[in-house]
Design a protein that fits this description.
The chain is α+β, with helices and mostly antiparallel strands and about 475 residues long. It folds into 4 domains: about 130 residues, 2-Layer Sandwich (Beta Polymerase, domain 2); about 80 residues, Hydrophobic Seed Protein (Orthogonal Bundle); about 180 residues, Hypothetical protein af1432; about 50 residues, no CATH class. Helices cover about 55% and strands about 10% of the residues. Strands 3-4-5-2-1-6 form a 6-stranded mixed beta sheet. The chain has a two-stranded parallel ribbon with strand order 7-8. Helix 1 crosses helix 3. The mean pLDDT is about 90.
């Protein structure tokens, strides 16, 4: 059903358009999702004329944010709290001409806005404009192109098709699948910003691993976008891994999905601070976590090793995400996860792990510590399952939970410093500068490791450091 706020906004749009007696159509995703029984926040509208004026009027009246998506093609978006409204110029003389230019039949349906307002209960299928049988395809769970040239006109539709398959649980019909196979090399041609938008949505779905496996193994979409994937399929084996990197990566994604879907059992590992809003970035990090092995393979004493692959992987991940126009914070998050994904394993193997060594890891990972632990658990679970070492998974899981508990304890101890920067200046007669920051960091570490518990202990602890620095 349409939300009450959506219907109210659509009435404003209709009233403005009726002033010059022009018909307005709702098209595409909103119609598709309504018929599929899914909630939708974005509504696409097609107008014959005065597209810019209508969008600007609607934005002004509703205090929405107007975005010009394509000035030449007359495509405008108004962003509202409940979602967005896209206004587009009609292509051709009638709505059927416009629908012919769309990608898949399930997106090539339209409904007159006048009738929707007349029948506020929803869309009456008898008035549905569906020249390419999108509604029957939706019922039969089929994803079918409107015309054979849809991907040549806009190659981004290759990614959109994969995303729609995952979000709506549809299957490509055979002719459509053949066209995708033939034209998959076009997938890297759209603007990087547009590819990023589709990738974010694919990695946000609960079945990301299945979609990536299909997208690559059936259509080669991902290796056309990231050629290093071809190398991943040919390397990765050593005494610990009998499988190639690609096989391992997909299973890591699957394990991560299973862990994320079982939040109740993970309550000891993930806390209230777990950044679920970064879910797509966690999955992207899992997808790229071993990409550094494509360039770090070494042979020593007859054994294959991948020393430092997490560092080269972080660099490669940064380059790939920059190329796809991800934001700086997004890139930093993935870079951190990739660079640290081996650290929990190293900690588990350390013969004499000190509290300070543990603290250094927590400090490097920061708020992403629970995510690093989760990624490591997925990584180790996948590797051990593929190589018949499943008996070690429960113990490793318990160790990750133990690290998560220690992280929460250390985080709590260091959350409120016993002394402020101003107090340090007054107590030790120091001027404001870098030294104050260093002392505060030392104090935070000492509190986290439970070496000081009172203000007096903190002063005595830092006094030794001040004396040493000035002696």
């Amino acid at each position: 059903m349409f939300q009450e706020e959506q219907l109210s906004n659509l009435k404003i749009i209709l009233k403005f358009c009726q002033q010059d007696q022009q018909e307005v159509f709702i098209v595409g995703g909103a119609i598709r999702d309504y018929l599929a029984g899914k909630e939708f926040n974005d509504i696409d509208l097609v107008l014959k004329r005065r597209v810019a004026e209508t969008a600007r009027y609607f934005a002004d009246v509703t205090s929405g944010h107007l975005v010009i998506l394509d000035q030449e093609r007359k495509v405008y978006r108004v962003v509202q709290p409940e979602g967005s409204y896209d206004f587009t110029q009609l292509k051709g003389k009638k709505i059927e001409d416009d629908l012919r230019e769309r990608d898949f039949t399930v997106n090539a349906m339209a409904y007159p806005l006048t009738l929707l307002m007349f029948k506020v209960s929803g869309i009456n299928r008898s008035n549905l404009i569906d020249p390419y049988a999108g509604w029957p395809d939706l019922q039969q769970r089929t994803l079918r192109v409107v015309t054979t040239g849809v991907f040549k006109r806009d190659p981004l539709r290759l990614w959109r098709g994969l995303r729609l398959k995952g979000s709506l649980t549809l299957d490509f019909d055979l002719p459509t699948a053949k066209i995708i196979i033939q034209q998959a090399t076009l997938c890297s041609r759209p603007a990087a910003e547009r590819i990023r938008q589709e990738l974010v949505q694919i990695f946000s779905l609960p079945n990301t691993a299945e979609l990536i496996r299909l997208g690559e193994e059936r259509f080669a979409l991902f290796s056309n976008l990231i050629p290093l994937i071809r190398v991943m399929k040919k390397t990765g084996q050593n005494s610990y891994h009998h499988e190639d990197l690609w096989t391992h990566t997909i299973l890591v994604l699957e394990k991560l999905q299973q862990l994320l879907a079982d939040q109740e059992r993970l309550s000891d590992l993930i806390s209230a601070q777990f950044p679920f809003k970064l879910l797509y970035l966690i999955k992207i990090a899992a997808f790229l976590h071993d990409i550094g092995k494509t360039e770090s393979r070494q042979e020593k004493d007859g054994q294959v090793h991948y020393y430092g692959h997490e560092k080269s992987g972080a660099r490669l991940a940064r380059q790939l995400l920059q190329r796809c126009r991800f934001g700086k914070k997004e890139i930093k998050t993935v870079e951190t996860l990739v660079s640290l994904h081996m650290r929990p394993l190293y900690l588990s193997l350390a013969e004499q792990l000190t509290e300070r060594g543990l603290y250094r890891f927590f400090r490097e990972a920061g708020d992403l510590t629970p995510v690093v632990l989760l990624l490591s658990l997925a990584d180790q679970s996948a590797g051990r399952e593929l190589n018949q070492r499943e008996e070690g998974i429960p113990a490793y899981r318990r160790y990750m939970i133990e690290l998560a508990q220690k992280y929460q304890l250390i985080r709590q101890r260091g959350s409120s410093l016993l002394l402020s920067g101003q107090e340090l200046q007054e107590i030790f007669f120091l001027e404001e500068g870098p030294q104050i920051g260093r002392l505060l960091e030392k104090l935070k570490e000492a509190q986290a490791l439970d070496r000081v518990r009172t203000k007096r202990e903190a002063i005595n602890y830092l006094r030794k450091m001040v004396r040493t620095e000035y002696s």
